[in-house]
Amino acid sequence: MPDFAYIDERTRSLLHTFGFDRETFEKLRQALRSGVLPDNTLQQNVEPVVHSDVNPLGDLGGVARSEDFNRGVTALQDGRVGLVILAGGMATRFGGVVKATVPVVDDRTFLDLKLQDAIHIAKRHGAVVPVYLMSSFATDAPLREAITTHTVPEVPVEVFPQFISLRLTDAGELFADAEGQLSPYAPGHGDLAFALKRSGALNRFQQRGGEILLMSNVDNLTATLDPAVIGAHLRLAEANGSAITVEVAPKHPGDKGGAPAKVNGIAQIVESFRFPPDFDQDTIPVFNTNTIVFDAAALAKDIELTWFKVNKTVGGQGVIQFERLVGELTGFVPTSFLGVQREGEDARFQPVKDPAELERRRAMIVDVLKRRGSL
Question: What is the pTM of this model?
Fold first, then answer.
């Protein structure tokens, strides 16, 4: 079996560059070997959220939406708002091509359209909106090359990498593929706060007066920089004392993913695999879109997130990897939930996981972006 003493120089360099945490890795590895890993299922009391726990984003053209919009514009003009775009992971579902660089409309890529929207909003409102692009070891170099043609004074772009780890066998040994190579992976978007701090990006954002970060996946193009969403976050923070606002959308049959629930009375995002077996997840009519507004101060807190054991298949072989989830922050930081639409002109949830889904969703994405003036 391979061991650290025999790691090739390329893998060793990758681990060093992308912040491999040997100490944590060994603790998790030993727990796996000893069979003492905790169950992923929550042991606390879990209840569905009630209707009043979800605050709907005001209707387009309505008074409430206008008030939130104006509040958000002020925050933008004051230099308090930045964007985080998640573009890490393993670049696997588009045939090994980095998804952020895949063309969506003509020759404009996912990343082009995300940055184009930020530029549109910044110029429209006379604001500067810094963008922080979370990469991984698998996407870092292509993303750094891609942004060279995008950075404008109104929207400075900075790439910061998430972490890296190594896959294991069921027995806790380092997994090697058919060629004998170790198998690195990116351990989940729960890296966000830790990677922002490690890179210094969070500190730089705060030093320039930044207070609020809107995070979204690079493949969810309708999760645009809407000042009304920023304004809603500020309104809910004032009303509820919350420092995180999670966008939740109506659940459709077959949807999988996290959802808001009350754990020992505290409303938070719970991933689907963490619900107790006897909990009926259909009692929760909305789910997490992974578009989240954070107070920067909340991301600066020292919060230890759970490492979850995840079973994967690589080259036809079963492997183990450990991942963290950004939604777990809601269990530690007061959180509000913002109900958004997933279809129509006010859509904010049209994710694209593979080429077939891009074909299905392209027309709606184009229509929404054109209506918002960013395309």
Answer: 0.96
